[in-house]
Specification:
By secondary structure, this protein is an all-alpha fold. The protein contains five helices and no strands. It has one domain: Arc Repressor Mutant, subunit A. The N and C termini lie close together (about 10 Å).
Amino acid sequence: MSNEEVIWHLEQWGLWSRQDGTGRLSNTSSAMFYGLIPNSNDESVLITDEKAMEIDECICALDFFNREAWLVLIMKYYYNMTTTSISRRMGKGRPKVQSLAETGEAFVAAFLTK
């Protein structure tokens, strides 16, 4: 699976995860990230529920493998935060955050090609 395919799947998983059960995207009420997700109902989820649940399982497994990489993927794909924003929030440099994102993305790629 190419890097572009992994990123597409993670972006679609983020959209799928933010749905409110009616097919519409909703804002999160998490205090830590309140207001970071725009309520943009014009984005379409193109991933199947089965594939999204597979990625969800992978994200949960990543939490046990590398908690920081898990957190970066959650902030990047679920909360749609930039690397700079993640870097500030975590108190880590941009290269470290980018490295953690790449680690998480490689984990997802390996999980999806098993």
